[in-house]
Structures are given as C-alpha cells and as structure tokens.
Specification:
Number of helices: 3
Structural class: alpha+beta
Largest sheet: 4 strands, antiparallel
Strand order of the largest sheet: 1-2-7-6
Oligomer: single chain
Radius of gyration: 18 Å
Strand content: 25-35%
Length: 171
C-alpha cells in the first residue's frame, strides 16, 4: 500500500514509484502473525478448538475459537503452553503444494470455514514443525523463539460457545 507523506498528493495511476518497507512494523507483524499460528496450534492441540475469526496489529492480536466452555485455569494454561513453544525454538517452514496434496494433510484448515477459494491450485503451507501445519498466505518469522513472549491478556465470551483470546507479544 502506498502511503504518501503528509501533504503530498497521490500520484496518477500508472506512475512509476519507488518505495521502502517499514522494517520495524513488518517484523512486528511477522512476529504477531506467527504468534497467532502458535496460539492456534496450542489451542487446537490441547482443546481441539477451531478458529472462527481473528485480527492483528503489530504485537497485539485477537483470535476467536469455537470453545463451548472455558476450563478452570484456561488463560494461564494457554499462555504457559504458548511460551513453552516459544522456548522450544521450533522451526517455521513455508512451502507450496498442489491443492490435492495439501488437502491430504490432516487438519490443514484450522478455521471453522475453509477460506481457500476453490480456484486456488497451489496452496501455501506454513509449518511450525512439530506443532502446527496450516494453509496460510502471510509472512512469518523463522522460528518460534523469534516471536517473543506471548501474554494472554484477556479471554472474552463472544456468545454461544465462542471465546476471544487477546494476546500481546513482547521481547
């Protein structure tokens, strides 16, 4: 996305422009996105819950899960499990597979609804080795250690068995 300097007009369509990546923001978003995958992997592994929604900003995010009842100690247990996975320094690999091959991987879709359009022939796979393998198109860090500490800031009831987990990422 082109963000012009304050007071500068947008160039006309078709104009050649030169840009630069805001590396600090991009890295924060990569850490956050990878942190959401780690959170998803932990909640799926430990509670069997699918994702129903999510959103992120640099170093803070939310993920919604289909979780009928919140067990005692859930918030702390999820935070502890996430940080154990950060400490495990798991590799995060990215590859592309033909659609048929990708959909042979068990639980490759961790959302309640498959969001991969039928016309997509090659599916990008993000694998937190030993924890979470999903179809995904976002940017990621190279290992769970690079995510940083995860704090589960809040667990909210979103009605009819849906729970929202708000997380913060720190160094």
């Amino acid at each position: 996305m082109l963000v012009p300097a304050e007071g500068d007009p947008l160039p006309p369509a078709g104009t050649v422009v030169r840009g630069a990546v805001e590396n600090e923001r991009r890295t924060a978003l990569m850490r956050t996105h990878s942190g959401l995958h780690l959170l998803c992997g932990v909640v799926f592994r430990d509670y069997g819950c699918l994702v129903t929604g999510g959103n992120m900003e640099p170093l803070s995010a939310r993920m919604d899960f289909d979780l009928r009842e919140v067990p005692p100690g859930f918030k702390q247990a999820v935070e502890d499990a996430c940080n154990a996975e950060v400490d495990a320094d798991r590799r995060i690999d990215v590859r592309t597979l033909p659609r048929a091959e990708a959909f042979e991987i068990p639980d490759i879709i961790r959302t309640a609804t498959n969001l991969v359009p039928p016309e997509v022939r090659d599916v990008r796979i993000v694998d937190i080795v030993g924890l979470d393998t999903q179809a995904d198109g976002g940017t990621h860090v190279g290992s769970t250690k690079q995510i940083g500490r995860i704090t589960v800031a809040k667990v909210e009831n979103k009605g009819r068995g849906f729970r929202r987990l708000r997380i913060k990422i720190s160094d």
